[in-house]
Design brief:
3-stranded antiparallel beta sheet, elongated
């Protein structure tokens, strides 16, 4: 009975964790550039002494992410960019390091620095990106940023910086609690990749499929109920066995 309880308990625990992951994905259906979280599980045999392994329990592996691209929405806004295919924008974290995101709805801070909507500084190939106040900004497909002030000629516009676009292997990336991706511990920051391009006036949406997420949420709820039923059955069997022993 103790094995049955342990197997059911481990299954219920993982079903709850998967439910939380699916709920987080559902909550970010409308979040630009969001990458759906994917949880993986594996079966581990229950080994006890010299007895054969007739049961297995569930353990979770390291959570991953679905890196497939999300839908693109035309906005016509000069500071909106979306990465074509594989690749990432680079932002600066609070500790001065680098993190990677697909969120491309950018803004200009009070000091002229280019920021994400989450107020994280966008990193350029030469460092921080600072734009002239009141300038009309254009972002080319290679990430080059030009700014033209009021009254400036249409030709000979100066380049003020270039977005740092990277494309590290997805196996080298881990998602942080803030939703940003970083290189795994021990790996250096990703180098700029000239093959990565962006589209201006476009925002990439979340790659979460709301219908699939809803179906998964229902399936996980049913799985949790099944595990709880197994625990209840194990308890009832234990009580019946105790009665037999008491009156045997």
């Amino acid at each position: 009975m103790d094995r049955m309880l342990y197997v059911a308990m481990s299954g219920a625990k993982q079903a709850m964790e998967q439910q939380a992951s699916v709920a987080n994905n559902m909550a970010n259906v409308s979040t630009p550039g969001f990458r759906a979280q994917v949880n993986s599980f594996r079966a581990v045999p229950v080994v006890g002494g010299d007895e054969p392994s007739t049961r297995a329990f569930v353990v979770a592996t390291t959570p991953g992410a679905d890196f497939s691209p999300g839908p693109l929405t035309q906005t016509g806004r000069d500071l909106d960019v979306a990465v074509h295919g594989d690749g990432w924008l680079v932002v600066q974290t609070s500790d001065g390091g680098e993190a990677y995101t697909r969120v491309g709805n950018l803004q200009v801070g009070a000091d002229g620095q280019l920021l994400t909507m989450g107020a994280r500084p966008v990193v350029g190939e030469g460092g921080a990106l600072v734009l002239p106040p009141g300038a009309k900004v254009q972002i080319a497909s290679n990430g080059a940023i030009t700014a033209r002030g009021a009254g400036d000629p249409l030709v000979g516009v100066a380049e003020v910086g270039r977005l740092k676009l990277v494309n590290p292997p997805t196996t080298d990336l881990v998602r942080g609690d803030d939703g940003l991706f970083r290189m795994r511990d021990g790996l250096p920051p990703a180098e700029a990749d000239a093959a990565v391009t962006v589209a201006s006036g476009v925002v990439e949406g979340s790659n979460v499929n709301p219908v699939e997420a809803m179906v998964s949420m229902i399936a996980q709820a049913r799985s949790f109920e099944m595990q709880m039923k197994s625990m209840q059955t194990a308890n009832e069997n234990a009580q019946s066995a105790n009665k037999l022993l008491a009156y045997g």
